[in-house]
Design goal:
Helix content is 30%, strand content 26%. It is α/β, with parallel strands linked by helices. Strand 2, helix 6 and strand 3 form a beta-alpha-beta unit. Helix 1 crosses helix 3. The longest helix is centred in the N-terminal third of the chain and has 16 residues. The radius of gyration is 24 Å and the shape is elongated. The N terminus is likely disordered.
Length: 317
């Protein structure tokens, strides 16, 4: 009887270890792991061999914040592989858990993560979150530690609601191909440092990024550029000879300079202005350069008080 029980248990462990790497039942694993060390050992074979670590929305909402932090520490300690392909997390650390997040980013560095997704906005709420908590955590953006900028293995970086400031000794992300920044505090100089230090960069998305007044992009490999609702932008200077797709939604900035855009084949420009005599002619030179594209959509909307204007300038495909 004892032998039969042992064999059954072993077979269950073997079946867990053979699960595909993209199937990671975190919610079940966490509920059991924070209750029993026996169950931790039961899930250990799965964690040892997984290369995709995804603390998804369901994982977050099912746990209190303290249990979440405890569970993440437990699960990451179980992982023994040298390499992780993807690491995704939804977590708003506030001041209390900032050092825990720094430790988890160090894990990302040590494991040579290729795809990193960190949503720190608090949009995914824990089971014990209150409205006051969400307001308090949402007000404080987490500043990314210097260790992030030495994660040389990252090929895809997706960050939400944080402060991004490269250290003085930053040497670039040599493997980086895709960057998406949502609600990230970054200035023009810091953005240029990241872009110039990423020679393989092909896809750049920036949305609701404050403190960004100047956007200067000089990159030969960039193929897709999206700038959306970055309301502080006052000037843009773009030189991207291989750019295929351009998406811009925001204010009519005073100094738009686009050099060498002959490769663009799809562009969407949703422009807004809050002046009665806005300087749209500053964009005319750029529009003439887009006469060759296969799909173009340009729309200008006025938000000037008492002057509602909604003008569709160009559309063809």
């Amino acid at each position: 009887m004892d032998f039969q029980r042992k064999r059954t248990f072993t077979e269950k462990k073997d079946s867990i270890s053979k699960l595909p790497e993209n199937i990671l039942p975190l919610n079940c694993a966490v509920r059991t792991s924070i209750l029993s060390r026996q169950w931790i050992n039961m899930w250990k074979p799965l964690w040892i061999y997984t290369t995709i670590i995804d603390f998804n929305e369901e994982f977050t909402t099912n746990l209190k914040k303290t249990d979440y932090v405890q569970a993440v520490h437990q699960l990451l300690q179980l992982h023994t592989l040298d390499k992780v392909k993807k690491f995704r997390m939804f977590f708003s650390p506030g001041d209390r858990y900032s050092f825990d997040l720094i430790e988890w980013i160090e894990f990302v560095k040590v494991k040579g993560v290729g795809e990193l997704v960190l949503d720190l906005s608090g949009s995914v709420r824990h089971s014990d979150s209150t409205d006051d908590d969400d307001i308090r955590w949402g007000m404080n953006k987490f500043r990314m530690p210097n260790s992030l900028f030495s994660c040389l293995s990252i090929s895809s970086l997706d960050l939400t609601w944080c402060i991004l400031k490269p250290p003085h000794d930053f040497n670039g992300f040599k493997a980086l191909r895709s960057v998406a920044l949502y609600g990230v505090t970054i200035n023009g100089v810091q953005l240029s440092e990241i872009i110039c230090g990423s020679p393989l960069l092909e896809d750049l998305t920036m949305s609701y990024c404050d403190s960004l007044k100047s956007v200067k992009i000089d990159h030969n490999q960039l193929m897709r550029l999206t700038l959306e609702s970055c309301f502080d932008v006052e000037e843009m200077e773009i030189r991207t000879p291989n750019l295929k797709n351009l998406q811009y939604k925001g204010q009519v900035c005073d100094k738009p300079i686009f050099n060498d855009v002959s490769s663009i084949n799809e562009a969407t420009l949703l422009l807004t202005h809050d002046k009665l005599d806005y300087e749209l002619h500053l964009w005319q030179n750029f529009l003439t350069k887009l006469s060759h594209v296969s799909s173009l959509y340009v729309k200008v909307t006025s938000t000037y008080p008492g002057h509602v204007d909604d003008v569709l300038l160009h559309i063809w495909s």
